[in-house]
Amino acid sequence: MNATELRAQGSNIDFIALDMDGTILDSTYTISPRVVETIQRCRQMGKKVIISTGRVYSSVLRNTKALGRVDGYVCSNGADVYDGEGNPICRLHMGEALSRRLVAISRRFPSHFHAFIGDSWFYEAERSYTDFYIKRSGLQGGKVDFESYPSLEFTKCIFLDDPEKLAPIAAAMEQELKEEAEYMFSAPFMLEVVIKGVDKETGLERYLAMVGGSLERTLAFGDADNDEAMIKAAGIGVAMGNADEDLKAKADFVAPSVDDDGVAAVLGSMFGITQTGVYH
Questions:
Q1: Model pTM above 0.85
Q2: Which residue is catalytic, options 19, 161, 199, 227?
Q3: What's the average model confidence in pLDDT over 63-81?
Q4: Which domain covers residue 125, as residue numbers?
């Protein structure tokens, strides 16, 4: 799909699904004023905006204050879905048996591992990526012994490390938990795990079913492996210029990078929005 064809599809889009990190959030975890204005203008035109992210709901709110209200949230890679007021639509979390199996796997590797129970995250040992995640999420974690933690039911869990050190963990997921869990990379250094059957596509479907929408009339933006299902399923899937080449090849269109306000560029062109601000 070229830029002219993309513009012609504007009238067929009712919903805009936006990943956060690497899509609307830049490397400083902020949303540029140009992107903020363009998203707000889309909502004024009647388009429904859904944040679709690996982050938990509380972390989403901390990092999207500049946007103001949006229409829905697909959080934790689809495990938790909320309406625009923060009311839960669905929550699909792991049972205790799967949660404890993931803890057992984590103890075989030296990588940072933490798990969310609700919107709070916990870890057993501090690693090189622990402080990085605190900065990225804006949330403080709690150090615990998972062995003695009662009612261990994870929303999701995350392994953080250099890509070559995550490869054997991904292999263990494939070999041992393929029928019970979904694993995906939200960044080259971040391997996330949720319950089987959960991803951003299914989370977005659950939101759209509640409001009478459809994936066919959805424009979805993303930059990472955990965005692939959503981008392929949407009526129009857009990969960011900073995405890897594999995701770009599967998208309908490639936007400029997040640092070049790619979301604003595509939305502005597609819906005829001329930005009014002066940006620095």
A1: yes
A2: 19
A3: 95
A4: 96-195
